[in-house]
Amino acid sequence: MIEGEKKYGAKIIKITDFMDPHLDLYARYTEGQLLNRHEPEKGIFIGESPKVIERALDAGCIPISFLMEEKHVEGQGRALIARCPQVPVYTAEFHVLTQLTGFQLTRGMLCAMYRPPLPAPEEVCRGGKRIAVLENVMNPTNIGAIFRSAAALGIHGILLTHGCSNPLYRRAIRVSMGTVFQIPWTFLEGRDAWPKEGSRMLHSLGYKTAAMALSSSAIEIDDPCLRKEERLAIVLGTEGDGLSEDTIADCDYTVRIPMWHGVDSLNVAAASAVAFWELGRERKSGGLA
After folding, report:
1. Which backbone phi and psi does 112 adopt, to 5 degrees?
2. Neighbour tally for 157: CB within 10 Å
3. Is residue 222 within 8 Å of 278, Cβ to Cβ?
4. Does this model's pTM top 0.85?
5. Where are the beta strands (DSSP E) in the chain?
6. Torsion angle, CA of 160/165/169/172, rounded to 10 degrees?
7. How does DSSP classify residue 37?
8. Residues with Cβ < 8 Å from 282, sequence gap 6 or more?
């Protein structure tokens, strides 16, 4: 490590050795260590790429340090560094940083930040027209893709059950393009919080629930009764088995997407995009709350 100069209010510190302990957060901590389940208020996430970092800062996330290629200090990292005076900036040559798994996907810039406190489920849902509920969606790539579709297609907020992957895992953040910082979300805490308790909460706020599931009794996604609902929670299930029988039974509607060529289902991320577009499109001209 080489102590460097100050620029834009930040101390620039050059890293020359991949085993430098200042790289531990970025190179050697597991997702579990970053999450810090025992002390969640001390949890950390890693933002990758300038756009993701910018969206995290805009959402009020507190940075701990930056890590970037040296050339980005005067380039695409300059504005971000200027926003965060006194936050240390670690730099290194490209050959050092490429030892970080997946570094080529980061556009040369990383930022460690504290995880923000999660809002209550009622806070996420209140005032919205369309929200999503994710039941045991375990693949971080799918989580990130669902958030990106939700942001693009006007979903107000997202609730996740206990078995879902965390939206602040690195891959989820990256795939979402930082939209995990733009859409309100939280977990339904406890293994028994869904479907009964969560469904009661949604109904108390005026939502009807629509389970996306393959069922002979399901209505098609373009059924006019769905678009007439003032508030609708779109419920999507795990990648393999879909929604549980208890969840389907507890929902107000069971909804399916018509298929052709013998295809029986879509990947949950693809299904979410179809559902968010179709079930929110009549409100699109006026904007979803």
Report:
1. -90, 130
2. 22
3. yes
4. yes
5. 2-7, 10-14, 44-48, 63-69, 89-92, 109-114, 130-134, 157-160, 185-187, 208-212, 219-220, 232-236, 253-256
6. -80
7. T
8. 227
Instruction: Give the residue carrying structure tokens 């859409």.
Output: 183
Yes or no: say if 257 and 212 are a contact pair by the CB < 8 Å rule: yes
> CA-to-CA distance for 250 and 107, rounded, in angstroms?
45
53 touches 80 (CB < 8 A):
yes
In tens digits, the chain (289 residues) has pLDDT values of 555 566 656 788 999 888 999 889 998 999 999 998 778 778 999 999 999 999 999 999 999 999 998 888 888 889 999 999 889 999 988 888 888 866 765 678 899 999 999 999 999 999 999 999 999 999 999 999 999 999 999 999 999 999 999 999 999 999 999 999 999 999 998 878 999 999 999 999 999 999 999 887 899 999 999 989 999 999 999 988 899 999 999 999 999 999 898 787 799 999 999 999 999 865 444 444 4
Is the Cα torsion angle 52, 53, 57, 60 positive or negative in sign?
A: positive
